[in-house]
Structure formats: C-alpha cells, structure tokens
Amino acid sequence: RITLDWEVLEDIRRTINSFQAFFWDPPSATAEKDFAGKGGYYSHLDPATMRPDTMQDGTPAAENRSRKNWNSVGDHVPAYLVNLILSLEPLPLGAVRQTFAPLLEVCHTIIDEVSSLICEKFPDPNSDYVFERFHADWTPDLSYRWQQNRAVVGHNLKIAWNLTRCAYYFQTRAKRLRDEGKPQEAAGYDKRSDRCLEVAKKLADRMGEVGLDKIRGGIFDCVERHPSDGMPTQFAWGATKDFWQQEQGILAYLILYGATGSPHYLQLARESSAFWNLFFLDIEHQGYFFRTTENGLPILSGQYGMKSSHAIGYHAFELAYLAHLYTRAYVSAGGGSDNSFCLYFKINSIKEQKSINVLPDFMPPSRVRITSVHANGVDVTDSLDPANLAVYQIPTDAMPPDPTNGTVELVVEFHATPVQA
Asked: Can you name the residues that pair with 130 across neighbouring β-strands?
C-alpha cells in the first residue's frame, strides 16, 4: 500500500491462497474434504496432514482440533483486509487492473463472510460478552484451556472497532453501487452496514458498563462471562489491565464517535487515552509497559517485563497511526482543532500500475477530501483530475520520479468534514 511493491503483494496473495486452501471452511465443503461446511476459518492445522481435524487425542494439539475462534475469523479484517482493499479498490489504472480483479473479489468474499459471521455467531443473548471460541459447527466451546467460560474485554472492543470499520466500508460500497445504477445491491450493503454498526454499538455500550474501570480509568483484561459473585464484573484472576486492550478501547470509542457523534463515546475514548498516557508509558526508560494493576502500577515480573515482543510492536504502531487519524478525522473536525493530516508514500517505479489509492482507512463516504498532493517535493495538485481525487485515486503519470532511482516520494494532505451527531 505504501510502496506498490509487487513482491510484497505476491507474498500477500500466497498467504491468502493458503487461508482459502487450508483454513477456510467453505459452505460448499465437499465430502472428500470432510469439513463442516459452516463458513469461517479454522484456527489450527495438523502440520503433517495440513488439515484442522486430524490432531491426535492425548496430545496438546488435540484441544485445537476443528476449532474456530475470534482471531481465526475476525482478525482477517484489521490484519490485512482493510489496507489490501484500500490498495485495490477502485482497481488501479494500467495493465495490472485485470490481474488485481480476482484478488479483490476474494477480498470481497472474505470481508462479507467474516463480518456476517461475527454479527450472527458471536453475540451471546444471555451475556454482556461475545462468544470467542467455537467448534466447527459454531457450537460455543466453553471448555478451552485457560479461557473456559470467560471473556476478554479487549476482544469485545476490537470487534466493536472493526465492525464499525466494516460498516463504513459497506456504506462506501453502497454509494458506488447506487452511482452505478444498482439500487437493490446498494440496499443490501446498507443493511450490512446497519447490522455491523448495531452490534458494534451494543458491545461498546456494554463494555463501557462492565469492562471499563469507572473509578480509575482503563480497561480490564479477562472476566467471567456470567458473574457468580453478585457483582456486574467478576475477574478471572485479577483486576489487571493490559496495554493492547487499552488500544482496542481507544480506537473503538474514537471510531464510534465518528459514526454516531455521541459525546458518550468521545468521553470514553478520552478516559481510556488518559489512562494509557498516564500509566502505560515508561517515562524514565522509554517504551511502555505490557500490564498494570488496577491502580496503574506496572507489573514487571516474568514476561510482563519485556518490551520487545511482537504484540507490543504491532499494537503500538496500530494505535499511533489510527488514534492520530481518528482524532483528526472525527474529533478535531467537530471541535475546532486542526482537522487536516498527511499520509506519506514511497512508490516504486512500476510501469504496469498507473495509479495509487490513498484513502487513509475505511471511512464514511466524503468524510475526508484531498487538499494537496506533492510528488518529490513538487506540488502536482492542480495537474490532477478532481474526479480521481474524489475517489482517492491518484494517477502516477503526473508525478515526477526521482531521477536517481525512479521512486516517487508522495505526500497527500487530507481535510476532514465535521462529524454529525
């Protein structure tokens, strides 16, 4: 997405092919494959057979036999689908257009399926929290190792955040279909958007009551899905708070403020941000802590003293980028602050691709607009077609390349429109 590097895209394509060939449980599963045929993705494969259902009894792997979970189903959206779809839709100009079309269609299939499954299978009508682990036929698995019948607050918030992103995407698809004279197809995506937003708001509202610390701020970790001690929240082990779950809450409430204009969501986003800034940042030694007590004291014993794990890096980059983006696009745009921001690209010299898509994230139609484009320091805004900029597609032909290596350093400035309550 940043570089238009075809080798990176090929890695992505191969990985998605692996998901579809080995992990996917397609509704049309054949008897030969002997999967459940219930949709979604299995979480684990037997490395000898490359199947999800052949783990031997009595081995540690047996507990993952024919299992599905939140990560294997829903994490396709934030992990790669958002940025890949943004890169491919609308299809790039040039000879690569037909090459990319089949991959984009696969992405459409995946995001439609996983978002529908999350809305349909995950909510539990008898609990404040979603189900997170399932058997192949979507029967909830309430006996898995440490989780049992417990909920991870951050997963509920991550679902709220990413369903809102999906809602924005379906709004965009509906608009494009209406513009193409396809009102019935557009209405279908309007319904998808409404359903995603409905589930997202319900989860975010409940987590605001039972997953967030109303006294000290911050977001709790693992809790019992059905409290038995008479309290609204019963902790599985302790009232600890992990850094990545703060991220999910901050992003969920910021994006829901953008979707609804509700000051309640903005307040929860600010409270969550305040706890992060006060207690998770290691002011003395740099970096940030993995886990704190309920009062914000860092827990440094064992693995929690590490600052170099894959989880810390991934969530930190995601939070830094998207919290800035959502604040400028949703909060500042309605509060009189600076509602502009820039994205930076360094495009490889690719003759077959004649455009780059630059929309920052899945956003409501017309929420942000491009105000200027600079290529290798040259302002090329006036030479670009406003019709392309309206769909965030910038032709590369108008960009002066670096004469030394052919790359283009692209700076795109956006301006956000106010959020409507």
From this structure: 123
26-69 pLDDT, tens digit per residue, is 987 754 556 789 999 999 999 999 999 999 888 888 999 999 99
Enumerate the β-bridge partners of residue 166. none
Take residue 415 and report the two structure tokens written for it: 């301006």
Structure tokens at 76: 């396709």
Other Cβ atoms less than 10 A from the Cβ of 403: the count is 7
Q: CA 262, CA 330: separation in Å to the nearest integer?
A: 11
Q: What is the pLDDT of residues 155-198, one digit of tens each?
A: 999 999 999 999 999 999 999 999 999 999 999 999 999 999 99
State how far the Cα of 397 lies from the Cα of 395, in Å rounded to an integer. Answer: 6
What is each CA distance from 93 to 43, 360, 394, in whole angstroms?
Answer: 36, 19, 9
Structure token digits, residue 150: 């417990």
159 and 203 Cβ atoms separated by less than 8 Å: yes
Phi-psi label, residue 183: left if phi above 0, alpha if psi -120 to 50, beta otherwise: alpha
Residue 17 is classified by DSSP as H
DSSP secondary structure, 337-401, as one string? S--EEEEEEEE---TTB-EEE---SS--TTSEEEEEEEETTEE-GGGS-HHHHHTTEEESTTSPP
Cα distance between residue 9 and residue 15, in whole Å:
10
According to DSSP H, which parts of 122-182 are helical?
Answer: 153-179
Q: What is the pLDDT of residue 308?
A: 74
| Residue 136 to residue 87: CA distance in whole angstroms | 32
Using alpha carbons, select from 29, 176, 23 the residue that is nearest to residue 104: 176
Quick one: pLDDT band at residue 130, thresholds 50, 70, 90? very high
Tokens of 297: 């004291």
CA-to-CA distance for 29 and 399, rounded, in angstroms? 48
